[in-house]
Amino acid sequence: MDDWKDQWTNWIPVLEKELLDEMEKAPAVSEVHALDHILRVRERCERLGKELDADPEILVAAVYLHDLGRHYIPDTAHGALSAQKAEPVLERIHFPAEKRQSVLHAIRVHDVSVASDQRTSIESRILYDADKVDTLGVIGILRYIRHYYGKQPIDYMLDDIEQRWQGLALPETRQLALGDYEYITGYFVQLKKELRQ
Question: Does 111 score more than 70 pLDDT?
Answer without folding.
Answer: yes
